[in-house]
Amino acid sequence: MSLSHRAAVRALLALTLMLANAGAAAHQQQAALTRVLFNARSGNLEVMHRFVLHDAEHAVRALFDPEADLLASVPAREQFANYVQERFSLLGSAGNPLPLQYVGQEIDGPFLWVYQEMPIPADLPSLGVIHDALRELWPQQNNLVNIERDGRVQTLNFNGSTQWLSVNFDPAAR
Q1: Using DSSP, how many helices (H) and how many strands (E) does the chain show?
Q2: Residue 100 contacts residue 134 (beta carbons within 8 Å)
Q3: Quick one: which of 86, 127, 128, 146 has the most CB atoms within 10 Å?
């Protein structure tokens, strides 16, 4: 095999690998990450939902508008944000829904973020969470929730048939 033939084979192999990677990157991740932060400085309980933009776009097209374009359309992003708010809840210790307020949404690189907040409740020894976003579309959807309070992070994983989960903040229960 000549040197130029080897170079051509290597170039073809490199191109094939690049195209295979590009195809893999276009697949849906079907995973979301939510951070619930008890922010002592602001006095707010802050909720930050991060969705892969590609997944969010597939969802909006399947649920609302087959022609939706999340990059170009603020109304489409707001529609997705409303959808997330309807499928995410925080529950107080007595099981009562906590009144999260919508803050906004934004695209940051490959992600669509949805923000909510509320004042930190005075007495909250435990917190229940429901996170059903995208799970009716994709049974394999995985929604991970990190809850940060007093320097401690507790993680909840919503997958399969999981309906709701909870964390306990009582130091005696740790």
Answers
A1: 3, 9
A2: no
A3: 127
Per residue in 100-132, pLDDT tens? 999 999 999 999 999 999 999 988 999 999 999
Strand 88-91 with 126-131, pairing: antiparallel
How would you label 36-69 residue by residue, b for 16+ Cβ within 10 Å and e otherwise?
Answer: bbbeeeeebbbbbbbbbbbbbbbbbeeeeeeebe
Average pLDDT of every residue of the chain: 86
* Domain positions in the chain: 29-173
Selection from 83, 120, 127 nearest residue 100 by Cα:
120
Residue 144 φ/ψ, nearest 5 degrees: -95, 130
Question: What tokens appear for 21 in the block?
Answer: 């990677």
**Long-range pairs, 5-11, Cβ under 8 A, ≥24:** none
User: Torsions phi, psi of 2, nearest 5?
Assistant: -75, 160
pLDDT at 25 over 70: no
